[in-house]
Specification:
- This protein is α/β, with parallel strands linked by helices.
- It has a 5-stranded parallel beta sheet, with helices on both faces.
- The protein binds 4'-phosphopantetheine.
- 4'-phosphopantetheine binds next to strand 1 and helix 4.
- 4'-phosphopantetheine (PNS) binds next to strand 1 and helix 4.
Length: 160
């Protein structure tokens, strides 16, 4: 059994995240989506809201579970017998950042946690959670960026 973890902020969940989740869920026996609640001081969605959103989006994926997570990824992975971390890669700028995180995790875990990178599909390469927030903030159309139910939740956050 290979247990994998997909960590991230998911603020908000995008179509790019969804594609990585579907592919990783097909690739591994179990996939834990770990929603980090310690990195952003002012997230658009609370960690509880983000967990609920991810649970709704993955309701039909039987080998996927969603957890809120605070602390070091390697500690959670060790406690839960997880040896693979999954991350999506969009570009060379992502790569520099991701390589640093992957190497830190590998060293901190004493090589117990490795990272598998999935290449983002070309149709999602322009999507980022921060871009979604900026576009929505100025009233732009985020239909092509997030699942339909998430679109409504994001717009609701910006209603004055
Ligand atoms: O979606 P994001 O914000 O790019 O995800 C970054 C994340 C959450 C994967 C990364 O910040 C992380 O794993 N944080 C947990 C703390 C940790 O384990 N840090 C050590 C590795 S640098």
């Amino acid at each position: 059994m290979i247990n994998a973890i997909y960590p991230g902020s998911f603020d908000p969940l995008t179509l790019g995240h969804m594609d990585i989740i579907k592919r990783a869920a097909n690739m591994f026996d179990n996939l834990t989506i770990a929603v980090l609640d310690n990195m952003e001081k002012m997230p658009l969605f609370s960690v509880e809201e983000r967990v609920k959103i991810l649970e709704k989006a993955t309701i039909d994926m039987k080998n996927v579970r969603v957890i809120a997570f605070n602390g070091l990824l390697v500690d959670y992975a060790k406690e839960n017998d997880i040896h693979v971390s999954v991350r999506g890669l969009r570009s060379d700028t992502d790569f520099e950042y991701e390589l640093m995180i992957a190497q830190n995790n590998n060293v901190l875990s004493e090589e117990a946690l490795d990272t598998v990178f999935l290449a983002t599909k070309p149709e999602y390469i322009f999507i980022s959670s921060s871009g979604v927030k900026e576009i929505a903030h100025f009233g732009g159309d985020i239909t092509k960026y997030v699942p339909p139910f998430v679109k409504e939740l994001v717009y609701n956050k910006y209603v004055k």
